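Class, carefully examine what follows:
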Amino acid sequence: MGELDSADSKSERGEILRREGLYWSVVSEWRKQRDRGALESMRQKHPGRKGDPVRAENARLRARVEDLEGRLQVAEELIDAQGKVSALLGKKYRKSAAEK
């Protein structure tokens, strides 16, 4: 489109259109889209470009490991607390049994 925009005469523009196999209506529509910003947004999305599936799987697994490590830490803290409660209750039970 830059080449068309820089063309000085209709004959130059016609030559460019013939060479590229385009119709003026298509170029006109592209200009409207460009003015609305549609072409720029398409350029940013990289249509058709696929990410590396190994990297995606790696990222997913790393997130899963991080989540599971957090859950493991909570579980270990709960088990530790349960052990302490059990020890306290065991001492209390032994004391109350000894008092009887």
In short: Residues 6 and 55 are 44 Å apart (CA to CA). DSSP finds five helices and no strands in the chain.
